[in-house]
Design goal:
The chain contains 21 helices and two strands. By secondary structure, the chain is mainly α. It has a two-stranded antiparallel sheet. This is NADH dehydrogenase (Quinone).
Amino acid sequence: MIEFIPPGLILLCAALWVAVVPNHWHRLGLFVGPVLTLMAIWSVPDGVSLTAPFLDYELQLIEASPERRLFATIFATMAGVGALYAFKHARRLELACGFAYASGAIGVSFAGDLITLFLFWELMALFSTLVVWFGGTAGARAAGIRYAIVHLLGGVILKVGIEGVVVHTGSIDIQALQANNFDTYMMLAGILINAAAPPVSAWLSDAYPEASPSGSLFLSAFTTKTAVLALILLFPGTPLLIYLGVFMIMYGIIWALLENNVRRILAFSIVNQVGFMVVAVGIGTPMALNGATAHAFAHIIYKALLFMSAGVVIYHTGKEKCNELGGLYRTMPLTAFCGIVGALAISSFPLTSGFTTKTMISEAAAMQNLVWVWYVLAAASAGVFLHAGIKFPWYVFFQKDSGLRPKDAPWNMAAAMLIFVGLCFGIGIYPEPFYQLLPYPTEFSAYKPGKVVFYLQLLLFSGLAFFLLLPLMKRTNTLTLDTDWFWRTLGAKISERTTDAISRGYSRASHSVSAGISAALKPILPSSDTSKDSVPAWSIGTTALWISTLLSAYVLVYYW
């Protein structure tokens, strides 16, 4: 029977349990909910297994396929490990919202039609906004409002595209589309907003660092990767995505190198890593789509590991700027180790999950003779090693002695991090079982001697460049501007000045009209003051007469 229950609904019920059950019994839902959800995910057979009538359509609430199942699996796993990491310090309602947010992502994963996809899409927008607000600061409240505005706008754009596609095709089924008309471009734009594609990617680096450390952990996993799955299902092989993905890759690297805030560094690196997946979807071959799916899976693991290690530091020190940290490996060796593993994985270091998944995307580019894309991906791997592979652990755990002596991670945080450390090495050392779960049967081997040597050389020289340029990369207490400056600062000033100009113009026009009417009526109206600055004193009867006359004239002209 469990195969006929939407897996996302199970996690949503767990979220409700966590929110309303008193005392410590709510913790039962934190750990049983994800386990039952995983059981349901792997009990669902391929194809459509649950439908429901809606107006003239048949909603496909559950449609399973290998890529859908893999995305749902890592979403449920992230919910469970995130709960283990956060349950001792996060507020209960924050955890409930995190579970509801994850349930929306799982619902999108199994949605077989555009209407169901859109409903779960908006469920994610709602609860992810609440997760941001649970940051509990004025900055979190403001960032949450901006986050909600962007995602509501993206939802409206997606809805317009869906309506157009349904009207013109008569079908609500999720199927591969060509981005060649207004409807499909609107759908693509709505999805890309959630993927944090520039120029509207600033919502990610704005909101994620303002959430609580546990909130940032949940936020890092779901929204952008759900958008990647939507691109895989709806727009595979769209050439525009190659160019857009390359831009995302380079943009994320540059902004992460400039940033001083630890969580903003990791937020910009999300944009960078999602760029690799977008490039793979744009290539659109079976190898590339396998690479996009595999890299999304691995990315959630190592990115969570980075956010968890950063979260431990923030909880124990209250600081999250690189220039305020350093030397923490002395008292936080386990946290430092886990952070380094995550940094190596995101840098595609051999024996880690990042290497066995990201190289699949490079292989797909080479197979399609996209030489320039292959070179960009190789250079970007070096750039990722600079900003996340070395910069993050170096400035947080090494460099200077900041004088801070915080405790290491408590047992629940340590256990959560070690679970993902095991997955990083497991997928990296023995990837074949994982490859068997990918959607398309392809021949691929990550550990060819030439490939391993090339990546080791690339990372070695990238690390050498970092330490040679270290004096130029000294961290200072600076603010990195992003594209949101155009509407948060410049746009606000333009709007303010435009409003003032309109107000002044309206005031002058009103004064001129009033003066003209007064001048025209002055000869026929009684006046008790002959001075030029006096205002005519009208009796109530005269006022009523003129109002009646003007209304009668208006009615006469209107119906003439």
